[in-house]
């Protein structure tokens, strides 16, 4: 699977581990940065990953910052993105089954590297169940359309 990944300085160390984990599991990964632990701002990296996913260049995205919240907010500003902060395996499973999340967001303050790998593995292998949940995804898409068209 083609996966876009990005982080700010708060998620830099965890990102390095997740890039290696993803590549070792056969995924094609593009690292959108940051590429150092030097202080930087998360919106740039979050937008780059979200934009690449919404354009269809990547099937899924991974974002990491200290809390996960800031990156999640930025990603969800991009039409077509359904980002979810997932600091547990159950959240990861539900974000895919119910919400068809296309970006997972980690708070490096709240998950260990091993837990993030386990969570990511579940998130990548879980399919959207459709049914009533598809109806809700369609409603989200309609809201985005109305906003973009100025309704």
TrEMBL record:
<dbReference type="Pfam" id="PF02502">
    <property type="entry name" value="LacAB_rpiB"/>
</dbReference>
<protein>
    <submittedName>
        <fullName>Ribose 5-phosphate isomerase B</fullName>
    </submittedName>
</protein>
<dbReference type="InterPro" id="IPR003500">
    <property type="entry name" value="RpiB_LacA_LacB"/>
</dbReference>
<keyword id="KW-0413">Isomerase</keyword>
<dbReference type="GO" id="GO:0009052">
    <property type="term" value="P:pentose-phosphate shunt, non-oxidative branch"/>
</dbReference>
<comment type="similarity">
    <text>Belongs to the LacAB/RpiB family.</text>
</comment>
<dbReference type="InterPro" id="IPR004785">
    <property type="entry name" value="RpiB"/>
</dbReference>
<feature type="active site" description="Proton donor">
    <location>
        <position position="98"/>
    </location>
</feature>
<dbReference type="GO" id="GO:0004751">
    <property type="term" value="F:ribose-5-phosphate isomerase activity"/>
</dbReference>
<feature type="active site" description="Proton acceptor">
    <location>
        <position position="65"/>
    </location>
</feature>
<dbReference type="InterPro" id="IPR036569">
    <property type="entry name" value="RpiB_LacA_LacB_sf"/>
</dbReference>
<dbReference type="GO" id="GO:0019316">
    <property type="term" value="P:D-allose catabolic process"/>
</dbReference>
